[in-house]
């Protein structure tokens, strides 16, 4: 360029000229070796052509960077940016220009001052941890994140709450037209200028831009030792945004040198987009990304309830989900599983409060973070998965293994499809009312007598199926087996070889004493039905005699036991002596005596008798037999009766299931352990 300066700025990129041979921004040669004589017309034309080509390339780069999805076009068909490119619009087939490598930082806002060399700032992601350690150690009262973007300037303030969790407490944005009015009013052209583009418009004075940014900084967010700054710097290529960041860096460095004994560093660190933090996203998202790597200063706990197994007293229980000191890496999520248990009733979803810290017995001393909800059936359990995204951010992912009876409720997304549970307003833990006591019901001992002889095998098989379904349904209500024991006696007709499965001496299947439901189910699976030979009576009296010692055995200890004998049959028992056409029991057993023994021992006798079918008898012996059957079933049903067809096994199981007594309000919290 003949060794002369062109208006004190680089003719290609507009950067202030520094007296160097090459521009520090675009690397255009500013000064050449001296030559003798005047430049020829050819020399001038070559210089103009080279400058025109370099200017077009520089503007094309800025256009591409400022509108990356449209190749420099503002509206997809020319647009204001292409209309002002030096050298004309992008030519067909013109390749995208690579972004320039990171250059030397531009000059300070006021070149007349002796430039300060900023302190070295770490750009490694580990710097995020150092920033947060400074904040959490109270070496600064807060953090102020500053970012210059193509849309404006964004400030996010962060402070540590009383719960020890750093949070965004304030945010402010300022548009560029309020800071640097020398930028164009058209948004597309303004972005082009911020990317360093010149075009055919008058170039934006870099020094005027620096001065405008400095004036805004001093007026709105001057350096202070009360709050440390964190500068989010853009990816390389946004020339004016980089200059704005340099202005902040220099101003804070001046303040730091002028106030060496400040409590905290005015500019604590710099985080570069695409390196220390995500390349894209809002400033708030970037700050959130940084805060998520802070350590937990307190245990993040799940508030549950626990009932004393001896007294039934209900108290609060804290389960640590994520311990204090836990820390996530950038982009990491930690998960943990916990098993919770349903209460004894109520249809409302159970609350799952997550707290920072461990509350005292009265519920004070811990800060509520969030409250999830989950539906867990009474007496059932659910395996839940919680995810930690950062301090104070604990999400209920879903029931962890599709536990039966467990669903996450509400929106967003919320049922058994595995979506997160609903977050509700934080509960007042100290005011949360718990039941005073949950009183355990007496244990149920159910003994079944099952008539195995029928008019056909299907009739007896129906009774067997009912017995199996009943025991299975009761077992589902009591997974632990602590509240349920079952047994059974199966009986055939007297002295008749009724099928290949019974010998001539078989009258009763081996009695199954009260025990685990699995033992009863195993015995029932081995029983086989048979055809009956007469209709008047069965061997129920022998079955009752076999049940008496099983139902009246001492339980041992002080445990309260409720004993029930359920008769599943069609025909009434036989009499000690024949009565009309009702046959006698060959063994002389009196069912009324056995019934009296059971009742005197406090055993509740109930029936599930098949209904009588066919027309009523017209002869005297038939009428007498029917009258006897009705009287026998009335006596046997004194403790209650169920009707085949009307009372399925599930309904009978519900009627027999022990009922818990709750003193006080229902418990809205899930339980940390089963009630049994």
Report on the architecture of this protein.
The protein is α/β, with parallel strands linked by helices and 676 residues long. Helix content is 26%, strand content 22%. It contains 14 helices and 24 strands. It has helices spanning 41-66, 79-83, 126-136, 176-179, 187-194, 206-220, 239-258, 283-291, 457-477, 517-526, 540-551, 591-600, 620-636, 649-656, and strands spanning 143-149, 152-160, 166-175, 228-233, 267-272, 300-307, 314-322, 334-341, 350-356, 367-376, 381-390, 393-399, 406-408, 423-424, 437-439, 443-451, 453-454, 484-491, 512-515, 530-531, 561-569, 604-609, 641-642, 661-663. The strands form six sheets. Strands 6, 7, 9, 10, 13 and 14 form a six-stranded antiparallel β-sheet that branches. The protein has a six-stranded mixed β-sheet with strand order 19-18-16-21-22-23, with helices on both faces. A five-stranded mixed β-sheet has the order 3-2-1-4-5, with helices on both faces. The protein is elongated. Residues 92-113 have a biased composition (Basic and acidic residues). Residues 64-120, 398-422 are annotated as: Disordered.
Share of helical residues: 25-40%
Large-scale geometry: elongated
How would you characterize the largest beta sheet? Answer: 6 strands, antiparallel
Q: Given the helix and strand composition, which structural class is it?
A: alpha/beta
| Distance between the first and last residues' Cα | 92 Å
Beta-strand portion reads 15-25%
As a whole number of angstroms, the C-alpha radius of gyration is: 43 Å
- Spans of at least 5 consecutive residues whose pLDDT stays below 50 are 1-6, 70-76, 97-124, 400-405, 409-423
- Please tell me the overall pLDDT: 81
Please provide the count of β strands: 24
Number of helices: 14
């Amino acid at each position: 360029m003949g060794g002369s300066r062109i208006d004190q700025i680089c003719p290609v990129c507009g950067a202030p000229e520094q007296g160097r041979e090459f521009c520090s921004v675009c690397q255009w040669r500013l000064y050449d070796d001296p030559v003798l004589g005047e430049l020829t017309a050819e020399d001038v034309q070559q210089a103009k052509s080279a400058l025109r080509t370099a200017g077009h390339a520089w503007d094309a780069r800025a256009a591409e960077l400022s509108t990356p999805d449209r190749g420099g076009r503002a509206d997809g068909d020319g647009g204001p940016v292409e209309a002002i490119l030096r050298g004309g619009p992008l030519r067909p087939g013109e390749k995208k220009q690579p972004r320039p490598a990171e250059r030397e930082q531009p000059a300070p806002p006021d070149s007349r001052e002796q430039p300060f060399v900023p302190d070295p700032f770490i750009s490694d992601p580990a710097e995020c941890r150092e920033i947060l350690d400074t904040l959490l150690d109270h070496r600064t009262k807060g953090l102020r994140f500053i970012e210059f973007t193509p849309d404006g300037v964004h400030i996010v303030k962060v402070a540590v709450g009383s719960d020890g969790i750093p949070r965004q407490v304030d945010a402010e944005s300022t548009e560029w037209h309020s800071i640097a009015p020398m930028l164009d009013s058209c948004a597309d052209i303004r972005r082009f200028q911020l990317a360093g583009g010149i075009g055919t418009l008058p170039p934006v004075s870099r020094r005027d831009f620096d001065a405008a940014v400095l004036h805004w900084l001093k007026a709105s967010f001057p350096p202070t030792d009360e709050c440390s700054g964190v500068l989010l710097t853009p990816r390389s290529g946004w020339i004016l945004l980089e200059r704005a960041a340099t202005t902040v860096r220099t101003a804070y460095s001046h303040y730091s040198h002028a106030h060496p004994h400040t409590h905290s560093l005015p500019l604590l660190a710099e985080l570069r987009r695409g390196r220390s933090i995500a390349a894209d996203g809002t400033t708030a998202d970037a700050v959130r990304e940084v805060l998520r790597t802070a350590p937990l200063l307190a245990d993040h706990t799940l508030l549950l309830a626990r009932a004393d197994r001896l007294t039934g007293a209900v108290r609060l229980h804290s389960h640590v989900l994520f311990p204090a000191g836990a820390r996530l890496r950038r982009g990491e999520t930690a998960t943990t599983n916990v098993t919770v248990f349903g209460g004894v009733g109520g249809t409302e979803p159970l609350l799952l409060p997550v707290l920072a810290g461990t509350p005292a017995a009265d519920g004070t001393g811990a800060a509520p973070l969030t409250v999830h909800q989950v539906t867990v059936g009474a007496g059932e359990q659910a395996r839940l998965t919680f995810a930690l995204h950062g301090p104070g951010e604990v999400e209920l992912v879903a029931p962890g293994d599709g536990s039966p009876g467990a669903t996450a409720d509400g929106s967003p997304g919320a049922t058994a499809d595995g979506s997160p549970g609903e977050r509700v307003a934080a509960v007042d833990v100290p005011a949360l009312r718990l039941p005073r006591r949950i009183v355990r019901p007496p244990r149920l001992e159910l003994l079944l007598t099952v008539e195995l002889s029928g008019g056909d095998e299907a009739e007896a098989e129906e009774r067997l199926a009912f017995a199996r379904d009943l025991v299975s349904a009761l077992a589902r209500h009591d997974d632990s087996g602590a509240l349920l024991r079952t047994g059974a006696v199966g009986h055939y007709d007297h002295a008749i070889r009724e099928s290949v499965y019974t010998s001539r001496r078989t009258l009763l299947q081996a009695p199954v004493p009260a025990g685990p439901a699995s033992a009863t189910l195993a015995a029932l699976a081995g029983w086989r039905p048979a055809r009956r030979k007469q209709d008047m009576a069965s061997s129920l009296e022998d079955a009752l005699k076999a049940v008496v010692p099983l139902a009246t055995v001492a339980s041992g200890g002080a445990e309260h036991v409720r004993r029930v004998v359920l008769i599943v049959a069609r025909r009434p028992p036989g009499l000690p002596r024949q009565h009309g056409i009702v046959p006698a029991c060959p063994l002389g057993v009196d069912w009324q005596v056995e019934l009296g023994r059971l009742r005197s021992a406090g055993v509740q006798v109930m029936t599930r008798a098949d209904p009588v079918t066919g027309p009523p008898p017209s002869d005297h012996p038939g009428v007498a037999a029917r009258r006897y059957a009705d009287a026998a079933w009335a006596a046997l049903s004194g403790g209650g009766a169920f009707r085949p067809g009307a009372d399925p096994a599930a309904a009978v199981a519900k009627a027999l299931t022990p009922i818990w007594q709750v003193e006080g309000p229902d418990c809205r919290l899930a339980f940390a352990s089963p009630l049994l």
